[in-house]
Write a structure and sequence with these properties.
This protein has 527 residues and is of the alpha/beta class. The protein is built from 17 helices and 25 strands. The strands form 8 sheets. The chain has a 5-stranded parallel beta sheet, with helices on one face. Strands 10-9-20-21 form a 4-stranded mixed beta sheet. It has a 4-stranded mixed beta sheet with strand order 15-14-13-17, with no helix packed on it. α3 links the parallel β1 and β2. The longest helix is centred in the N-terminal third of the chain and has 21 residues. It is globular, with a radius of gyration of 26 Å. The two termini are 40 Å apart.
């Protein structure tokens, strides 16, 4: 091991622990936002704001504008509100662009979140709206050391389900063993005193579970082969997996090995809305219900000299709607195909900003075997195949039935599986899932899958920026095109999170109100 300075050590130590914060944090982009009621001064009475899209961003805009006296009209193409905040339960329907509409057939009370499923404890504004709207929340168990890693391949540990705690603790043990030996052998520069080295070795022994000789030995932290019990049952700790086996089986591959609790947004504690994330959308819908027109598909957006002119179609035909200003929250891949008279810069930004491909499948089982047989209560199993992740429900523990998310995949994997028919997706999820849970065959009842990049009125999961598009295209849409403003998670640094919709809505409402009232109202930097 090369010699390292204190600075080098701290840097490498952060990498070892997976503790490097996202670039956003380092760049100062995660600043505190006001988790309180949005109290702006002045009145918007007499002004009509047309809001395109009835997702979280659109309804939040209407909710806050209503408080200020504005007249709002929300045009939503679907027959439901919420956008990607969508919980699948019995009777839920979804339409993909190349498939017939699908209807879920689950037992009453069963559901899974096809879109957002987690609320980070540091997303203060999301939690604020849950409180203000009266939506109860509960803890979401995102991290579960009792779930599995499953790597298909040819290594000694491949094609076996390995407990997350075994992989995590074995890797930590071997890595800290190597670093402790390096320090102990004096292969560090003089910036470390003898006392420094002793203190660091003590830390490494505790972090990695090293013995007095600074060797990694398996301990109870990685679990038991035989659990302790009453009488003559002290328990038995299994031997650790060998480091070469972990390497050759792909369990340390950087695109597979996952320590979710180190990621800023995924650090515990996390939350979810009781009864499904759509409860947040439903609570907003109740507040702005008189303003909503569902089944209203926007076909044209035009700035006119005295405001905006919106053309939409519904079951009765084509209609036009005029307003003083417009807030457009339509996902950009959909907006790209809607007639408009935007400036060239705005049209270019809409076309250039891409969205990711992602999909989920919910699998209902007649028995919660993951709890009863394997003691898994919430959390995620990670795979290197096209399933990518299996999510276990963090609600209704010890219930009779349950729905787990049979895959949650992205990009090329999501594109591949999304191209399959509904029955083929189910078949794939069961074939790969039974390699981890053989109980699938006996306990499976029904499924429902959603590919967001193929879902009509979405055509993607969430905005994905390159360095170039964040620099050149993102700023363009932060400003209005004459009377049309843009809002949504795609116009924040919180892409994929509900917090992005809420933060963008507040920022846009502040800008609209400042324009109407002439006040210098500016919303704080987004979190």
């Amino acid at each position: 091991m090369k010699t390292i300075t204190r600075r080098d050590f701290l840097s490498k130590g952060a990498m070892l622990a997976g503790g490097a914060y996202p670039a956003m944090l380092a760049l100062g982009l995660l600043k505190p936002s006001p988790a309180h009621a949005f109290n702006l001064e002045g009145s918007g009475k007499g002004k009509h704001i047309v809001i395109l899209g009835g997702g979280l961003a659109g309804m939040t805009c209407a909710y806050e504008l209503d408080k200020l006296g504005y007249q709002c009209t929300i045009l939503e193409a679907r027959q439901r509100t919420g956008g990607r905040c969508f919980s699948i339960r019995n009777g839920s329907t979804n339409t993909e662009i190349d498939k017939p509409a699908a209807t879920a057939r689950f037992d009453a009370g069963q559901y899974f979140n096809a879109g957002p499923s987690r609320i980070p404890h540091n997303h203060e504004l999301t939690l604020h709206y849950c409180k203000e709207l009266g939506v109860p929340i509960q803890v979401y168990n995102n991290v579960n050391e009792g779930a599995y890693y499953f790597a298909e391949g040819k290594g000694p540990l491949s094609n076996k389900k390995i407990k997350v705690r075994e992989v995590h603790n074995d890797i930590r043990g071997y890595m800290t063993e190597m670093l402790a030996k390096s320090i102990d052998h004096g292969s560090l520069d003089s910036n470390f005193t003898k006392e420094d080295g002793e203190k660091i070795i003590e830390y490494l022994q505790a972090e990695g579970g090293l013995d007095i000789d600074k060797l990694y030995k398996a301990s109870a932290r990685r679990g038991y082969a035989e659990t302790p019990g009453a009488g003559d049952k002290p328990g038995k700790v299994a031997d650790p997996h060998k480091l070469p086996d972990l390497l050759h089986s792909g369990l340390m591959d950087p695109d597979f090995y996952n320590v979710a609790e180190y990621t800023y947004e995924l650090q515990m504690t996390m939350f979810q809305a009781v009864g499904g994330m759509d409860q947040i959308a439903k609570a907003l819908e109740k507040k702005v219900a008189p303003s909503i027109k569902t089944g209203a598909e926007v076909t044209a957006i035009n700035n006119v000299p005295d405001g905006v002119k919106i053309t939409y179609k519904d079951a009765t035909g084509e209609h036009t709607l005029n307003g003083d200003l417009c807030i457009c929250t339509i996902p950009l891949p959909v907006l790209s195909n809607i007639s408009n008279n935007f400036s060239g810069d705005v049209s270019r930004a809409i076309d250039y900003i891409s969205y990711n491909q992602t999909g989920k499948i919910g699998l209902q089982f007649k028995r919660r075997f993951w709890e009863e047989d394997e003691h898994i209560y919430g959390g995620i199993t990670h795979t290197n195949n096209d399933l990518t992740q299996i999510f276990y429900p963090s609600y209704d523990y010890l219930g009779k039935r349950g729905i787990l998310i049979g895959y949650y995949n992205f990009n090329e994997k999501a594109q591949k599986i999304g191209a399959l028919g509904y029955a083929e997706r189910e078949k794939f999820a069961l074939e790969k899932g039974r390699l981890i849970h053989p109980q699938y065959d006996k306990e499976f009842e029904s499924s429902f899958s959603v590919s967001w990049h193929k879902t009509k009125y979405n055509l993607g999961g969430w905005a994905v920026y390159t360095t170039e598009t964040r620099k050149t295209q993102y700023p363009v849409l932060l400003k209005p095109d004459k009377q049309v403003y843009f809002a949504g998670e795609h116009l924040t640094y919180l892409n994929a999170w509900m917090a992005g919709a809420f933060e963008s809505a507040r920022s846009t409402v502040a800008a609209v109100h400042a324009r109407v009232t002439g006040q210098r109202t500016q919303y704080p930097a987004q979190k």
